[in-house]
Amino acid sequence: MGLDDGKTRADTIMIASVDKKNNSIKLLSIPRDTKVEVNGKTIKINATMGYKSREELMITKVKEITGIPIHYYAEVDFEGFKEIVDILGGIDYDVPYDMDYDDPVQNLHIHLKAGMQHLDGQAAHDYVRFRHNNNGTAPGDYALGDPGRINAQQAFLKELVRQKLQPQYLLKAPELAKAISEHVKTNFTVAEGLKYVGMLR
To answer: Taking Cα atoms as reference points, which of 120, 47, 114 lies closest to residue 82?
Structure first.
């Protein structure tokens, strides 16, 4: 889950399915506006993070929707996402469209030009949060609404992994560990993570 600044809403919800037998990882995104029922009331699934026992509630609702067993969770906030991308040295990415959006309430200002460029943490954050322009236009897949943004987020994450899952970035492990400890909440332990290290090849 990628949490908003108040940490009471899940701006992004993704399931990562790890298949150790076939050495594959699959991503499934849950649209944040998906309707679920909590205590007899219909709400958007992203709002479950504002409830008590929020991780347990989110997992319960995702399991109800998908039928997929969920063993672990991880929450990262916007600042953590930006810091992790910066520690990894940013990402070279082909931004498909001009993006111009401002939301003063959230202090969110997205101004990216189309084309291949190097995105630092802030620019990467802006890219994955974009939904539409100030004038209401939504280019390409973004016209689909949340599914369009989901496609963009998944493509971005795949490219980030492709570029950064290289031996030289192992040197960044101490910095990454510090950022993760400060910005990520998870029930996934280091010992459990070591079981999957062999898959990284």
So the answer is: 120
What is the pTM (predicted TM-score) of this model? 0.85
Average pLDDT per run of 10 along the chain, which is 201 residues long?
88 90 87 94 95 94 95 92 95 97 92 98 96 95 92 94 86 87 88 71 60
Nearest to 199 by CA among 163, 161, 168, 172: 161
CB-neighbour burial class of residue 26 (10 A; exposed 0-12, middle 13-18, buried 19+): exposed
Burial class (CB in 10 A: 0-12, 13-18, 19+), 16: exposed
Q: Report yes or no: 5 and 77 within 8 Å, Cβ to Cβ.
A: yes
For residue 54, what is the DSSP state?
H
Which distant-in-sequence residues (6+ apart) come within 8 Å of 74 by Cβ?
1, 184, 185, 186, 188
